[in-house]
């Protein structure tokens, strides 16, 4: 007779919803996105900005790694009135998913992007007469009116046009057939820094642009940090990315936000490493005494950065274990010595909650020497995205 195993898998996963355990039973690694928490974040942000400011949901870069195919339609279902992306191709992808709300392209576009932009009713950020002309031609030929926004470079000195050029461009495009110059925007340089006094100076330039272009009806300036910290800079709409995903920017109070993403994997192997032996490439870590390590099938090709080698920690069955040795393209190891219950198939939490403990994207970012935006946006397409609502699986997106 087979001995009953010392622990029951279900009991060990006691806090882990059964539907998620079942749908991930034979997966190496995956992301979970909780649309219930996403809804709570939308509600919190709406509550904070009030009814007269539009919440623009920023879903560029595959919705900050969460999966735009799931997040885009989910935000639309939650009543978010407008989405924003960086590139035309990202906007086209949203339309293919059936998203119908206005979609703003925040970044640089070429005149050759005009046909796709007009055909898909995307709102371009227009930085040149050549782009405006191309959009106007396409729209006029299609019998449509295409919206464009003008971005003023008020001091970030990245994308946009300076104030005089913005005013000239807007007045020029205003007369074009098939064009609606709907929006005037800018972007802050120091939104989440302790000293954001430069925002005052940028806003002064922006206010001058608004005064010179009073006929442009939709004005927007704020990203998450500015939207949460500076009520006066909310204008007509706020462009929220990181906060929607439940991560507060530095120096930003946001007690009501809940992370919506978990990165999980299943232990692929448990092995003993005798005293003095090395593990993984370069043997960068050697066992001091006899150790037991567990193999986690996630690597830098998934976005689990090599800079986390020897610095990260993961959760298994509610306990924390340190990563050891170099992170490889597809896998890395954790030291589980003294935890005899860790077995092949156990769920490993790399970002998210397990029992009482959490690993946050901010913590991983600190360990990797970067910011949470880069950790999230770096999560690769190879990871399946399991969308669920408080543990009830809604849809799984495989790459
Ligand atoms: C990405 C982006 C945002 C969103 O910023 P968060 O800090 O993630 O809220 C807002 N505006 C512009 C122009 C952006 O490129």
Structure description:
With 399 residues, the chain is α/β, with parallel strands linked by helices. The chain contains 13 helices and 21 strands. The chain has helices at residues 9-12, 18-23, 35-49, 60-64, 68-77, 88-96, 114-119, 129-142, 163-174, 198-212, 224-229, 361-368, 372-377, and strands at 29-34, 54-58, 82-85, 103-105, 122-125, 146-151, 179-185, 218-222, 237-240, 261-266, 269-273, 278-279, 285-286, 291-296, 313-316, 319-324, 332-335, 347-354, 357-359, 385-389, 392-397. The strands form three sheets. Strands 1, 10, 11, 14, 15, 16, 17, 18, 19, 20 and 21 form an eleven-stranded mixed sheet that branches. The protein has an eight-stranded parallel beta barrel with strand order 2-3-4-5-6-7-8-9, surrounded by six helices. The two termini are 42 Å apart. The chain binds pyridoxal-5'-phosphate. Pyridoxal-5'-phosphate binds at residues 58, 60, 106, 187, 223-225, 239-243, 249. Residues 58, 60, 106, 187, 223-225, 239-243, 249 line the site of pyridoxal-5'-phosphate.
Keywords:
25% strand, eight-stranded parallel beta barrel, alpha/beta, eleven-stranded mixed beta sheet, disordered N terminus, 13 helices, 399 residues, binds pyridoxal-5'-phosphate
Topology at a glance:
Layout: H1 9-12, H2 18-23, E1 29-34, H3 35-49, E2 54-58, H4 60-64, H5 68-77, E3 82-85, H6 88-96, E4 103-105, H7 114-119, E5 122-125, H8 129-142, E6 146-151, H9 163-174, E7 179-185, H10 198-212, E8 218-222, H11 224-229, E9 237-240, E10 261-266, E11 269-273, E12 278-279, E13 285-286, E14 291-296, E15 313-316, E16 319-324, E17 332-335, E18 347-354, E19 357-359, H12 361-368, H13 372-377, E20 385-389, E21 392-397
Parallel strand pairs: 1-20, 2-3, 2-9, 3-4, 4-5, 5-6, 6-7, 7-8, 8-9
Antiparallel strand pairs: 1-10, 10-18, 11-14, 12-13, 14-17, 15-16, 15-18, 16-17, 18-19, 20-21
Helix pairs in contact: 9-10
The site of pyridoxal-5'-phosphate (PLP) has 13 residues, from helix 11 and strand 9.
């Amino acid at each position: 007779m087979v001995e009953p195993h010392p622990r029951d898998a279900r009991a060990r996963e006691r806090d882990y919803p059964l539907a998620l355990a079942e749908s991930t039973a034979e997966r190496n690694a995956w992301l979970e996105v909780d649309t219930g928490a996403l809804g709570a974040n939308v509600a919190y942000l709406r509550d904070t900005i009030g009814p007269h400011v539009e919440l623009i949901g920023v879903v560029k870069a595959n919705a900050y790694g969460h999966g735009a195919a799931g997040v885009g339609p989910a935000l639309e279902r939650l009543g978010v009135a407008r989405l924003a992306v960086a590139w035309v191709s990202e906007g086209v992808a949203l339309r293919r998913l059936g998203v119908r709300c206005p979609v703003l392209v925040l970044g640089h576009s070429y005149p050759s992007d005009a046909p796709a932009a007009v055909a898909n009713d995307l709102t371009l950020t227009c930085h040149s007469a050549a782009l405006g002309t191309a959009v106007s031609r396409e729209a006029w030929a299609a019998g449509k009116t295409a919206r464009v926004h003008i971005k003023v470079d008020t001091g970030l000195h990245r994308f946009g046009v300076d104030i005089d050029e913005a005013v000239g461009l807007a007045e020029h495009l205003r007369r074009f057939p098939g064009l609606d110059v709907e929006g005037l925007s800018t972007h802050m340089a120091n939104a989440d820094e302790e000293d954001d006094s430069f925002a005052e100076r940028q806003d002064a330039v922006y206010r001058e642009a608004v005064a010179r272009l009073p006929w442009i009806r939709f004005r927007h300036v704020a990203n998450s940090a500015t939207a949460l910290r500076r009520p006066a800079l909310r204008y007509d709409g706020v462009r929220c990315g990181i906060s929607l995903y439940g991560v507060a920017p530095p120096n930003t109070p946001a007690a009501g936000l809940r992370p919506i993403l978990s990165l999980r994997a299943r232990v692929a192997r448990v092995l003993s490493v005798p005293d003095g032996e090395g593990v993984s490439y370069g043997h960068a870590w050697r066992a001091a005494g006899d150790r037991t390590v567990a193999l986690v099938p996630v690597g830098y090709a998934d976005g689990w950065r090599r800079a986390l080698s020897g610095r990260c920690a993961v959760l298994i069955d509610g306990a924390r274990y340190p990563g050891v040795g170099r992170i490889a393209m597809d896998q890395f190891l954790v030291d589980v010595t003294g935890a005899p219950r860790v077995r092949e198939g156990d769920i490993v939490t790399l970002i998210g909650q397990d029992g009482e403990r959490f690993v946050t994207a901010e913590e991983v970012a600190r360990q990797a020497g970067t910011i949470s935006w880069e950790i999230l946006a770096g999560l690769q397409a190879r990871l399946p995205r399991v969308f669920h609502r408080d543990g009830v699986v809604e849809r799984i997106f495989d790459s």
